[in-house]
Amino acid sequence: MMILMTRQDMSYDDADEPLVAVTGIGNDCSGETVKMADTGRWTVVLLVSFGLLTLVCWRPWSYNVFLQFSVNEPSRINESQLRILMYKLIASGEENSKDKIDDAVNVIELHMQDESVKDGHEKLKVTGKHENSKITFENDFEIIDGQPKKIHYHYKAENVDKNEKSKVKDKSKSMNVVDKHENTKKVSFQCNDPIEDNARFDCYPEDIATKEKCVARGCCWKPALKRRLDRDDEPSVSENPEGVPWCYYPSDFPGYTVQNTSNLPYGIRTEITRSTPSYYPRDIMDLTVEFTYETDTRLRLRIVDPRNPRFEVPMDTPPPPGSQNPQYEVHLSDYNQPFNFLISRNAENNSTVLMDTQGAAPFMFAEQYIQLSSFLPSPYVYGLGEHRGPLLHSVNWTRFSMWNRDHLPQRDTNLYGTHPLYLIMEQDGRSHGVFLLNSNAMDVVLQPSPAVTWRTIGGILDMYVFFGPTPSDVIQQYTEVVGRTFMPPYWSLGFHLCRWGYMTANKTMDVVNKLRQAGIPQDVQWNDIDYMEQHLDFTTGATFGDQSSLVRELHARGMHYVMIVDPGISSIQKRGSYPPYDVGLQMGIFILAGYFGKPLVGKVWPGPTVFPDFTNPQSIEYWTMMMKKFHVNVSFDGLWIDMNELSNFVDGSVDGCSSDHFENPPFVPGISGGSLRSRTICATAFQNLSLAYDVHNLYGKFEAKASYEALKTIRGKRPFVISRSTYAGSGVYGGHWSGDNSATYEDMYYSIPEILNFNMFGISMIGADICGFELNTSEELCTRWHQLGAFYPFTRNHNSLGLRAQDPTAFGPVMSKRVADVLSIRYSLLPFLYTLFHKSHTYGDMVVKPLFFRCCQMAPNVTLTASLDKINLHISGGSIIPMQEPGLTTSDSRQNGFKLLIALNTTGEASGDLFWDDGETIGTYESGHYNYINFTVQKNTLRSVVKTAGYKDEPMVVSKVIVFGVPHSPTVVTVQGHTTHLNTTLHLRYEASFVRSLVCTSDFLSQWFHTR
């Protein structure tokens, strides 16, 4: 079988360009030759037999036959002639290309009949006869489940003399077309070798396997003690103990072999090739593998097709300086041996093996399927988002599917974001991380060996390994690649309130007034889509009232306003009446239904909608233009971008999707809905960078970037953007909330690992809807959730339409008091929280960390009571926490004095720091317009050192110092050389409890620290 292929994005402008490449050749038993070519836009099959060359052309998997030829000597048609023939036919775009091809090829009569489709079987019949000949033919194409399976052909010579008829006998025969899905192989002899259940690697991940399907792939079939459960459409993560695959790879499964290996200035390059195809269509037979030693603690692995470019995620990764002293080693297979590699720490770092592909599933790289498996050094695996579940993942056959989707947060399903990063705690307490820079739909499977398998359906394999050695080091190294988190405006650290259902500006303001009257701190008021006119972006509904006055009143109180904006732009408004659509259409800014088609139309809240293509560089100009025009009347301060997975109320589009191989890939990860277009746009939707097939998971990130740039241009201050959909690096432009959770204790519990995970992913501004979005909450749950949510990096109460109110005053004065108390604690800690965000922005630290980041050993557990009146707040010994007297807004709080909360460790020492600026100017750290102070306690002495003093717009006065862990009752306190005894004006309180504290306040103490 000869198969000729070319890529969809290659040029057809020059016939001399290599439009096709031979990947295999063979003949059927009767000598007839079948030649196939895939141009991406068209697939061409050439059947050469009995002096006839049948040319069948179809758009991928649609089978529209339109040409057939006779050839004088078909056996002499070579690859070059076929390539030129294909070029001329495709470039001409004409069904009759007789005058544009060689004289030896002549058009003949052709008839095509599309017969009925039943049970996934489709038949096409092609009949015709040679020009000036008595030879007739009839070809039947049998298509099963969208794939060509067999060609039945029949030739007959009529009314010809005896000599001619002896040359062309009546003949009928059936033959199989290459089915790359089930490329039958002999069962390996290695299937008799014992392989433990937990060491099996799944050879049939698509659905429940059968022995016949398994053996057809050349894999081993052996029932396990318990068979895994059938996969349905919904789950994408399976932690059931019955996950042992019955169909698994033998140890000698054919794959790639190593050819040429060479050393690079900072790394290794090798060429690998495979001689036999896999069971997936369109293998890339030759690949280039590069290991680049980018830094001493960062290794990059890239595996690419050296001949044809494939989609790569656009990301401003740092230029590799090259490692001078790498803390790792890479070992490759020898020449002509099966391709495997091993990555380990070097001998100075314990030589721990971090990735080892020897004995794991074979490496595969086909047009729409890439697979890499490796053994892991430890079962303690974290990361791999966005999914709901515990912080520590189970390696008991757990699958994580990634394809951004609008889905209520549930376990065992793909959610709003894609973050293909895992972090592992090794047995000796060191940590490392692995990140796959790939945006196509994928599965990541953990198994008990322990081992991991990555399966993605496009792009390239672009993998980073971060060597830590601490967990915090790993995250810093990761964010150095994907980008540090944005520096938030100070006001965004305050309390946010929202709900879907305020309906009017007056009702919105009524709730704000209730919180103010109850003494509950609040900085930001939000509105959901109910402020819009018929859910149209950049409009205010006639029944909503005066949105402009609402925002002005908030600003007058030192508060801020955030509004929702969805990406869907209504496409059914009267022409000239709705600029977001008219201007977008004029600029060519919307996602297209095809390469040269009209904008794709989906359905969301306003009805039929089109969607801006945020991969188009002009989208930032368009988005800024729309925002700026609306901001003239409604001076919003931040943006809430929702529904940007993309979410779609119809699958694909209102007109449906094509049926090609992008919409129906040979392997679909375990995503909710079982289809790439489920509740989103078509995978074949055309965007500036590529098809949605490649860039779907990037939509939210690119919209966040456009929104960030629009706010920066319009307001001239730090942008604040909260996005539901995210990808690696989204934290550069904004934050995230955990989506449409529910009012349950389970949802409250799962918010904790969600927030910790997103801090690992470099998205520090993260929170969950306090009290729950769906379902009616209770007073106790809502109280508990406010007490937890007060310590989220992003603190917002939000719930859905038609449910009972759940703002802090909704349950009466008792709950109001409890919420006011805990939010006052948050507001007092904002200088500390702001400093943590500064470290995240500049160094890649996490704002919120799991406890194992500080200590990886288990200590004795202590159980404390937690009444509804308070939340237990613990301070690590050795810490100095900068605080501030709380106000009802951050603007009020910033006018108050500072205090230092000091918790001594067992040696009587502590340290801390404070970053301070005006809280809203862009780039204060880069320009030096900030203050940075270090605090230390040693030998009963508190010292402060001003590292940077670039911000002098407001005084910084310390009015109180609180010290925990003072071993004995003090008699003398000295401040700046002034000694004060207990019987003077210094107010000192010593509490002899199990944690001893010293509280100092005085007039001259307030002058102890001043950055004038």
From TrEMBL:
Gene3D superfamilies: Glycosidases, glycosyl hydrolase (family 31), Golgi alpha-mannosidase II, Spasmolytic Protein, domain 1. Residues 189-251 form the P-type domain. GO terms for molecular function: alpha-glucosidase activity; carbohydrate binding. It comes from the Eukaryota. It holds the Pfam family Gal_mutarotas_2. Keywords: Disulfide bond, Glycoprotein, Glycosidase, Hydrolase, Membrane, Transmembrane, Transmembrane helix. GO terms for cellular component: apical plasma membrane. It is found in: Endomembrane system. One of its GO terms (biological process) is carbohydrate metabolic process. InterPro entries: Gal_mutarotase_sf_dom (IPR011013), GH (IPR017853), Glyco_hydro_31_AS (IPR030458), Glyco_hydro_31_CS (IPR030459), Glyco_hydro_31_N_dom (IPR025887), Glyco_hydro_31_TIM (IPR000322), Glyco_hydro_b (IPR013780), P_trefoil_CS (IPR017957). The chain crosses the membrane at residues 42-61. Belongs to the glycosyl hydrolase 31 family. This is P-type domain-containing protein. It comes from Pinctada imbricata (Atlantic pearl-oyster).
